[in-house]
Amino acid sequence: MFRLAFLVIATLASIANASAQQFELADVHAIPTASAAVMRGGFLRGDRYELRAATMVDLIRLAYAVDSDKVIGGPAWLDTSRFDLIAKTPADTSPEALRSMLQALLAERFHLIAHLDTKPFPEYTLKSGPHPRLKEPAGARESGCMAAPPNAQTATYSCHNITMAEFASRLPRMAGNYFQLTPVVDFTGLQGAWDFTLSWTPRNLLAAAGANSITIYDAVDKQLGLKLDVQQTPMPVVRVDSVNEKPASNPADVSRALQAIQDRFEVAVIKPASPGAKESFRVEPGGKIDLRGISLRKLIKYAWDLQDTDVKDNDELLAAGPRWLASERFDIVARPALSESASSRAPVDFNALRLMLQALLQERFKLVVHTEQRPVSVYALIAAKPNLKRADSSNRSGCRNVPALPERSGAPGPIFSLRCQNMTMPGLSERLQPIGGIYVPHPVIDSTGLEGAWDFVLSWSPPHILQGCGGCASDAGLAAAAENTTADSFGSLSIVEALDRQLGLKLRLEKHSMPVLVIDRIEQSPSDN
Known about the structure:
By secondary structure, the chain is of the alpha+beta class.
């Protein structure tokens, strides 16, 4: 605990003591607010930094390196008003210097006054048992964890010369479908570095592994002599004291000096896929894409955010188009432009990637589209027997994934437990498809008739650990999940059952007028490479 408090104080001190640095040029202005707007950008591309459709919460979390839920206080517009930022930085600007520049910009243009603090949050914690099973490092090996070759039912990592703090920080990425990237905080008190090997059953393979399965919680306990727990933990937060919604005026002619970078690929090679080629979709750091055996229909849906690479597939939101659109497949390798000072290992901005794919399709396949209102299948969120608590208006609107552990050894636990504060029913409806995955294969509209905002907790289990959920992605499967309350042996619930049992809300399939993407023109063969 003392170690954690020290680390929190050190983190806050490093932020507060960052040397005051400023952008060489910065264009920041408010943009019209759209309910479906999503922030894009936030990555340094050479000497340019761009943010599009960023809320003030986005700006503050990036400036102070905290999660959105760690931005505390301030007026309600912090979550809704949106801004564009284009700025020029000195060459070789470090991430720390970039954060300092953002802090200075917020203070100058928005008169942001905030202070650094700590606040307890329920977090996953890693603790030491009475007899840790860790080895002293064998030689001066490089610190890190290496995944073993894939096994049909087991994930294995060998870690060498690694501290417990670093191991805790890596766990959410190593066993992501147990933690959903919720952080794990080191409470072991074990100093120094260690060697060890850890094997567990990935969450989506628990049912198939049966009696041979072992959860990450049990693996950490039995193999390492450590314990995963959930407890209130002090975490760094930024408390907003005051801030202006309208930014100060930009310097004269700054927008002309900082023309926006076009979201386009610098190089793209497109060719017909080999007959019978297996479909794959790979995006590398820096934004390079390698697509194999992909149809243009699927690519159009991804580019216009109608389908993702996991479970969401709003097929009706794209009009049929020519028959070959779904049958003919292509291999596409494309790389975005990077200046000499930009890193090819930079994180991927998937919102910008979609815009680049749109431009590629328009250029190489002469794609022309428009949107029009058409009736499509949706789920109407209705209030059956609402069980909701009126919101505390002092809290800003938002939802946070709450860590949860299984009640007994061997159980996978309710991976999703979402705590929402000051949330309207339209706001919940917009979130249900992204968070519900294959449980919710259509868009959701609010038909509850419930006015105002609410506080609630919603907990459910992913479909791969729910018995008999093979058809959850179908309308019939969802209807069955809504009517049948037979949970699996671990007491798991689908999100449909959870809405009904916990909140008194139901999803009803119906037709509703929605914007549909219509293809006006597309050529069957791409232009030459």
